[in-house]
Amino acid sequence: MDDLLADFVAETREMLQAIEGEIVAWEADPADRERLDAIFRFVHTVKGNCGFFDFPRLERLSHGAESALSEVRAGRRHASTGLVTAVLAIIDRITDMIDAIDAGESLPEGGDEMLIAALEPRRDEPDSETIQAGEQAGPRAARTNGNTRSIRLPVELLDRVMSGVSDMVLARNELARRLREQGADPALQGPFERLSAILDEVREGATRMRMQRLEHLFGALPRMVRDLSSELGKQVMIDLEGGDVELDREMIESVRDPLMHILRNAIDHGIEPPAQRLAAGKREIGIVTVSARRTGNRIVIGVSDDGRGIALDRLAEKAVAAGVASAAEVAAMTAEQKLDLIFAPGLSTADTVSQVSGRGVGMDVVRANVERFGGSVSVSSKEGRGTIVFLHLPLTLSIVEGLTVKVGSHTLGLPRSYIVEIARSVSRSVEVDRLGDGIFLTFRGERVPCLDLAEVLGLDQEVDLDRATFVFLRLVSGDLFALAVDRVLDNEDFVLKPLPPALEAIGLYGGTVLLDDGKPILKIDIPGLAEAHGLASQTRVRTVSADGGTQEAVASPQHAVVFTSLTGRRRALRMAVIRHIHMLPVSAIEHAGDGMLATVDGTILPLLGAEGANIATETITALRLDDGESTLLYAVGGVVDSLELPDTIVPVEGDDTLEGTALIDGAMVGVVDAHRLFARHGRRAAPAQQPTCRLPTTDPWVVSFLEPLIRSAGYEILGEDDRRAADISVTLDAAREPDGDGTVVRLRSRPEGSDGDPHSIYRYDREALLTALASARSGTR
Amino acid sequence: MSDLLLLTRIAGRPAAFRAGDIGSIVELTEITPVPRAPDFIAGLAALRSRALTVIDSRKALGLLGPSETTDMRAPVVEVAGHSYALLVDRVDDVVPAAGEPAPTPATLGACWAQVAHGMIETASGPAVLVDVAALVAGPGETAA
């Protein structure tokens, strides 16, 4: 009997979740027969089930709702707002009772009759009017309902299967190692590889078993939006996209609260009251869109509204008033930095504290919560037009991207999300000073406090700072600090396991990680570490000084990664282009025609730099290059260092894959021409200029790709704020043309010409670009 | 209560675990030390895809003196969802319990009394019946 009861509770809850959205949709369109049927089916099922269990109250409630709904179904009654509210109230009561039954408590008597009475038609409602059924709308396309066959399983069983599969993978790896050591017998190799491939499939399947569709989360949103908007006297429609995106079920739970909070903000602060909306020339019904999509191994959930947006100046005033920033600081902020103030503790854009939001739980808490499980939050807003908040989430809670480092004899893991840069002491780009007991680094003109990880861990032997590698970490608060380690080992995906209490109490570690070879290591808890050493300021907002953009970009030094190519040459690539370093198994690489392709994170990318090389290892290192639109992989033998590129880069004749040669640490290093790489392989292209050329230097692509090319064509680069007249100016896509600035060269991002702009040049069309530059110059001179 | 006991020696004295508490016995080959960890935690080890926290039983009792572990076989226990491997002097045998555990005698000493469920008779003589949850909590926890 207990089992039956548990099943009843679980089933009813599941149905409750599933129909919440239906009810609201039904209210919006009472003629929607399918939704009416779904709700009817629910109350009908509840009624049938609870009769069986002898819950007379539940039975009366569901019977009341069933009768009212069947009247509507029979066309004798209209689905008025009053009826919908009454049905919702009954469903709420059913939910409460189910919870009480589950907890083994009894719900206080009374009130049921009132709820049932509310179902009766009131005279002032046009209930008895002839119903204009949806006939005019024509036959509705049959909605696909997600009734694929399913069974209910305890999560614990799934976890056991998962850990079994993980065990198999480790055993497989071990076996593979032994087979390799002993020289593989082909008779064994074939079946082993087959087994291995099957195992990978099983693992993927097992991982997916823990996934849930976002629908589970989305199901509750329409109801929430409905209740909230009527409470606030607003009219809001919610639009849900991407409910079929799958996410780890624990992650779904973790993201529930932040998402609700953002949604509440959008309705409470974002969407204006109907009158204001009409006055602003908008439809009186506000629209909130929640959309989810998967990109690589991250999920992005966007919550956008078409409300009033965030008034930056008012936000800034409030920040000053709240003491978050000084007036001078605020005055120097870019729009983006001002917008970032929304994450400052204790700030809200609401003028009045409503019942709904603005109770002191602000976006700072949302951000902190989301970052706790490895995600991030970003906001963009246009005053008067609306706001959009993005939640970027990892696919699972238990896998994080990490970096393994070595200190003394210990291997430890650092979560990648905090790491901004890695520099080696020997590259001389870092200056080390000891002040008191502290270590301070000067790196790119910034003084950064540094912790010796060996000291932090209480090891006997300190890290030798002359040979150390420094890992620069940026905290949520924006504070930057560095960790000195002996060596950086590798990038790995960490499968995190929780720590036992005795180890958690140390406050240094955030979990244990099993490496590929089955060896356990500890993951460092970066925020905990920073806090313990007083490196995290609680109140500071993320006010990263203007980097990259504006005029300074022209003068600021360029950084590059030095690596050995697969053919053993030393090469450098500009840092700005590099997004990630991947370790690729050779099996992920394919020859395709003249070139090579590789799969990374489920996408196929061109792989360069491996032509003609004989790959003897099982994995290769590849740099992921990105110009903002397309992505390439560049295979390397090994990454040597990252450093500042010298000012002089000597052009080389005869090798057009190189931008030139630079003198780095006394050796000649070829600088790979990223522009040409993308021009050739990136399926898109770019442009450039001479004597003086105005560039939109706020665009990262321009700084990384276009600027070096134009500079090498002999032009002096003028930023957008530079007052000097330029001989030529380059604009991207639809950007406004600057006034009176010589010849204008327009670039477009796509190879195919656009109709409205026949004279634009595809941005990687080097020849056309150089021709345009040449003719522009002869024209002006 | 299970009738079977796993007999071990900790700091030279017989110590018994209920067979039901023991998940398995592992052969510890490599222990990854944990910097800054309390003394009684010897480090981490891997059991297939799980990470085990290795407890030095002698130190967990709060006993002084060097470990006399000669046996790299370690009983694995699960406490509050975490798996621990217990380093003991040696793992002897699985024996049936002869009768119910008797109350902890006062003369056991503070260290042992903290982790003892009681005393139990076995075919190989009497032994202290160990409470694994108290053992893995370490000396600090129980002393407080």
From TrEMBL, chain A:
<keyword id="KW-0597">Phosphoprotein</keyword>
<keyword id="KW-0902">Two-component regulatory system</keyword>
<keyword id="KW-0808">Transferase</keyword>
<dbReference type="InterPro" id="IPR005467">
    <property type="entry name" value="His_kinase_dom"/>
</dbReference>
<protein>
    <recommendedName>
        <fullName>Chemotaxis protein CheA</fullName>
        <ecNumber>2.7.13.3</ecNumber>
    </recommendedName>
</protein>
<dbReference type="InterPro" id="IPR036641">
    <property type="entry name" value="HPT_dom_sf"/>
</dbReference>
<dbReference type="Pfam" id="PF01627">
    <property type="entry name" value="Hpt"/>
</dbReference>
<dbReference type="GO" id="GO:0006935">
    <property type="term" value="P:chemotaxis"/>
</dbReference>
<dbReference type="GO" id="GO:0005737">
    <property type="term" value="C:cytoplasm"/>
</dbReference>
<dbReference type="InterPro" id="IPR004105">
    <property type="entry name" value="CheA-like_dim"/>
</dbReference>
<dbReference type="InterPro" id="IPR004358">
    <property type="entry name" value="Sig_transdc_His_kin-like_C"/>
</dbReference>
<feature type="domain" description="HPt">
    <location>
        <begin position="1"/>
        <end position="101"/>
    </location>
</feature>
<feature type="compositionally biased region" description="Basic and acidic residues">
    <location>
        <begin position="749"/>
        <end position="760"/>
    </location>
</feature>
<dbReference type="InterPro" id="IPR002545">
    <property type="entry name" value="CheW-lke_dom"/>
</dbReference>
<dbReference type="InterPro" id="IPR051315">
    <property type="entry name" value="Bact_Chemotaxis_CheA"/>
</dbReference>
<dbReference type="InterPro" id="IPR036061">
    <property type="entry name" value="CheW-like_dom_sf"/>
</dbReference>
<feature type="region of interest" description="Disordered">
    <location>
        <begin position="122"/>
        <end position="145"/>
    </location>
</feature>
<dbReference type="InterPro" id="IPR003594">
    <property type="entry name" value="HATPase_dom"/>
</dbReference>
<feature type="domain" description="Histidine kinase">
    <location>
        <begin position="146"/>
        <end position="397"/>
    </location>
</feature>
<dbReference type="InterPro" id="IPR036097">
    <property type="entry name" value="HisK_dim/P_sf"/>
</dbReference>
<feature type="domain" description="CheW-like">
    <location>
        <begin position="399"/>
        <end position="535"/>
    </location>
</feature>
<dbReference type="GO" id="GO:0000155">
    <property type="term" value="F:phosphorelay sensor kinase activity"/>
</dbReference>
TrEMBL record, chain B:
<dbReference type="InterPro" id="IPR002545">
    <property type="entry name" value="CheW-lke_dom"/>
</dbReference>
<protein>
    <submittedName>
        <fullName>Chemotaxis protein CheW</fullName>
    </submittedName>
</protein>
<dbReference type="InterPro" id="IPR039315">
    <property type="entry name" value="CheW"/>
</dbReference>
<dbReference type="Pfam" id="PF01584">
    <property type="entry name" value="CheW"/>
</dbReference>
<dbReference type="GO" id="GO:0006935">
    <property type="term" value="P:chemotaxis"/>
</dbReference>
<dbReference type="InterPro" id="IPR036061">
    <property type="entry name" value="CheW-like_dom_sf"/>
</dbReference>
<feature type="domain" description="CheW-like">
    <location>
        <begin position="2"/>
        <end position="141"/>
    </location>
</feature>
<dbReference type="GO" id="GO:0007165">
    <property type="term" value="P:signal transduction"/>
</dbReference>
<dbReference type="GO" id="GO:0005829">
    <property type="term" value="C:cytosol"/>
</dbReference>
